[in-house]
Specification:
Blueprint (H helix, E strand, L loop, with lengths): L4 E4 L2 E5 L10 E4 L2 H9 L6 H16 L5 H9 L6 H11 L6 H33 L5 E5 L14 H10 L3 E7 L6 H12 L4 E4 L4 H6 L5 E4 L3 E3 L4 E4 L2 H10 L4 E4 L5 E2 L16 H4 E2 L2 E2 L12 E4 L6 E4 L2 E2 L3
Parallel strand pairs: 4-5, 4-7, 5-6, 7-10, 8-11, 10-15
Antiparallel strand pairs: 1-2, 2-3, 8-9, 9-14, 12-13, 15-16
The structure holds 5-S-methyl-1-O-phosphono-5-thio-D-ribulose (MRU).
């Protein structure tokens, strides 16, 4: 499969994640406006992929006749929770003094590294899973999409599945559909199908019941921001999964590149949580789901306290708070 996000012919090229699984199509983003819009519509999404989008966005701005610092600020603020976005922007911006080609080279280096670091982090995490879970083959539970589509090309939590599946160690992956935007049902299930990994999609609300029935050996998730004490912000519903996993004695493993760690935050209480449009809940494909006037609580992420996490694994191995 091609990269989720790349650079070609003076444009940022992304796989349009709003169109999957029905349609595999590419979008060419030639302006910062188009990039910011793609980030906010989740056409490109997932913390590591957003880091790449941030860096390539600065490369785009640096080649155009615009105030690059102001445009960089707009990109960094397009979504608030994944720290990787601002990290990618800052990293590319650091080369601005050396000219547009240096900015682009830095962004492309970041893309190459993202693939390598996620491959390494998920290889370490596969060893953690094997050490924590005695049953073979493994039944894994996934939430949201932390696969190739959430990164430049390998995946974090789903990268663990690629490593274990290659060794014949995966019985199945239970895929949380991940309300309301269905990143699990649409994207994770699509990736698993592409790789012929046995999987079943389940409503998010079935996860605790699956654990109670003994169907889950390990929960594997990615992260959008990890505080210095190990608290983890990830897709809404992750916190509930961690509580259920602890109750049932199921290991709960978080996999992320170290660019997801925000050492400026002592703990997860300082993590900004994105609130998304009410229409994600009040309608589906234009059809109303709620009575007119119903108000909505729609946080895109939650924070899981580190005490509920078995291990946070980066390319350096187990993260030490
Ligand atoms: O709103 P999204 O789809 O960008 O949320 C993505 C997630 O929560 C992922 O689990 C996280 O970014 C880790 S991806 C390797």
């Amino acid at each position: 499969m091609r990269r989720t996000i790349d650079w070609a012919d003076d444009a940022v090229v992304i796989i349009d994640q709003t169109a999957l699984p029905g349609d595999f199509r590419l979008l060419r983003l030639r302006t910062v406006d188009q990039l910011v819009d793609a980030i906010q519509r989740l056409a490109v999404r997932g913390a590591p992929a957003l880091g790449a989008a941030g860096a390539l966005g600065v490369a785009l701005a640096a080649r155009q006749n615009v105030d690059v610092e102001a445009e960089a600020g707009r990109i960094a603020n397009a979504r608030p929770t994944a720290v990787n976005l601002a990290w990618g922007v800052e990293r590319a911006l650091g080369k601005l003094g050396q000219g547009p080609e240096a900015v682009l080279a830095e962004a492309l280096a970041l893309l190459d590294e993202d693939e390598q670091l996620n491959e390494t982090a998920s290889r370490h995490a596969a060893e953690v899973v094997l050490a924590e879970c005695p049953r073979r083959p493994l039944r894994l539970l996934s939430h949201c999409n932390a696969g190739r589509l959430a990164t430049v090309g390998w995946g974090s939590a789903l990268g663990v599945v690629w490593h274990l599946h290659a060794r014949g160690l995966v019985e199945e992956v239970l895929v949380d559909e991940t309300r309301p935007l269905l990143q699990g049902a649409r994207l994770t299930a699509w990736e698993l199908a592409q790789e012929n990994v046995p999987h079943r999609v389940q409503p998010d609300s079935a996860a605790a019941a699956a654990m109670a029935r003994g169907l889950v050996d390990c929960v594997l998730v990615g992260a959008d921001r990890i505080a210095a004490n190990g608290d983890v912000a990830n897709k809404i519903g992750t916190y509930g999964l961690a509580i259920a996993a602890r109750h049932h004695g199921v290991p709960f493993v978080v996999v992320a590149p170290s660019s997801t760690v925000d050492k400026t935050l002592a703990d997860g209480t300082g993590i900004a949580i994105e609130e998304r449009d009410a229409r994600e809940l009040t309608e589906y494909a234009g059809v109303p789901l709620t009575p007119p006037g119903s108000r909505v609580f729609n946080p895109a992420f939650d924070v899981t306290p580190y005490e509920l996490v078995t291990a946070v694994v980066t390319e350096h191995g187990r993260f030490v708070p």
